[in-house]
Specification:
Helix Hairpins; 476 residues; Heat Shock Protein 90; five-stranded antiparallel sheet; Beta-Lactamase; alpha+beta
Amino acid sequence: MNIKLPISLRLTLWYSALLLLGFVLFGFTAFLFVDKELYDEQFNTLNESAEEISEFVTLKNDSLDVPRLVEETDAMNLQENGIFFEIWADSSDFIYRSRNFPRFLKLSYKNLGQSPTKIADQSGQLYHLHSSSVTLVAANKTKSHVIHIRTGQSVLYVQHILNRIRMLLLFMSPVMLLLAGLSGWLLARRALKPVVDITNAAREISLYQLDKRLPEPEQNDELRQLVQTFNAMIGRIQTGVTKIQQFTADVSHELRTPLTVLRGEIEVTLRKTRGKHEYIAALKSSLKEIYWMEKIVSNLLLLSRADAGKLTLQKEQCDFIALVRECMALQSHQAETKNIAINLQSTQNHIDCEIDVNRMRQVISNLLDNAVKYTLPDGKITIETKKEQQHILLAIKDTGIGISEKDLPFVFDRFYRIDKSRSREQHSSGLGLAISKWIVAAHDGHIDIMSKEGQGTTVRVVLPLGNISPDENKNN
């Protein structure tokens, strides 16, 4: 069964488990260290006692002087420390045993050895034994005797200390587990408190409250970076939603006006029977509004496909100068009605390039159309084209009304129009520059506008030549 636990509880369990594991490892290591140290200390004590006893092991008449040994060992207070001993001859004959030797401990000559050993008596009591040897030489130096001294001590005291340490560790384990769990829970709650605050703040953010932001933690850590990233993302979403809302409102406004005009004209026309000419006039007026809506919808579809990445360029080689002249011819009639002169200035007769001809025609036509619309009668429009290294420079200058400094940053925004009251009169939907900017950007170029109110406007476009052969560039 897959049980999903909260992060705070999981952190507490991990923290408690690791701390308890660390405590167990430390306790086990410490216990082994103390165990070894206590038994080593006991062994050293038995060894020192054997050395002291060996000093009183002497011969008298070629045999061990037992009375002197008893007298001297009694003075050593070995019994007070629980140390007992026995002496064996090298011929495996038993010589002497201290009065405090355990009566249930049965040892023989075969048990003698240099290494420390632990032996239990008949009652199960465990003793620590140490064996050593000393060589005695007779007074006449003709004969020597090897004497074995075995010292021992009960391990009860050592076991008592070890049992107390063991009980302390066993008692401290649940205490440590409790402390680890409590401290782990408090630390987890404290560490996750910013996450809880962020979660509560995030719940309050909705599509209609995108102006709110997540609280940033005071510490400059990973969590703060995550919050800053989320806030930046919310900011981008807010910008996108605001643009969508504005876009929807602008589209509704743009389409509502021609629809209202259409409805009014149709309703007026149908109120009574009219003549043929009146019906034709009404149909022409309605058709004009339909053309207007069709243009708006067509531009919107173009931008929508561009935003979705479904609009691709169909590039082909062409003469850029010829394309500019073609666009000038399309605007010539409108310019003549206002007595506006359009002049082309170019240092080359033709400039070969690789572009999407239809899309670039749309850009140049949009820019010329705006220049003609916003240039006063008897004005002038100058088109400059030239090639610099691997780029084409196009500049369209007019002597029109210009753009104010406050409006200039927004001219490429969709549906943005400087003079909204005259937009329908001039047949401007506010999408032309937005479309032009996308087309130029799709060609890896850039477009910018410089203008001063009352002094005219200059639109500058820079485009790459594209994949043009060196011979063609040379001919240019």
